[in-house]
Amino acid sequence: MKTHPTRIKKHSFVREMEMDRVAGTAEPKTVSIPLAQITRVLIDAAETNRTWLNDFADDCVKIDADLYEVLLAYQSLRHSSV
Fold first, then answer.
1. What whole-number distance in Å separates Cα of residue 82 and Cα of residue 74?
2. Domain spans of the chain?
3. Mean pLDDT, rounded, for 56-61
4. What is the DSSP letter of 72?
5. Origin, by domain of life (predicted)?
6. Are 28 and 19 in contact (CB under 8 A)?
7. Band of pLDDT at residue 4, cut at 50, 70 and 90
């Protein structure tokens, strides 16, 4: 059976990426999605104390600077009304 050279290159590349991931030298995988797409899932996970959410508690999340300012203002208003 003859192996296609492209498959060998792809397999080698995937294997190398996996080795880098295991060794901790790979670039972290990221995904850009609308906030609305994850909001309900995160709320549900927090309200039902899902363990997997705690597994990511120390991970950094990149958000738009405008959203960050709105969140800070909202947090400030919530604390002042309590």
1. 13
2. 1-30, 31-82
3. 91
4. H
5. Bacteria
6. no
7. low
Residue 22 has a CB neighbour count (10 Å cut-off) of 9
DSSP code of 82? -
| CA dist 74 → 18, 24, 42, 55, 61 (Å) | 41, 37, 18, 26, 18
Q: What secondary structure letter does DSSP report for 4?
A: P
Greater pLDDT, 29 or 45? 45
Q: For the chain, state the CA radius of gyration.
A: 21
What average pLDDT does this structure show over 40-64?
94
| Residue among 46, 48, 64 at smallest CA distance from 56 | 46
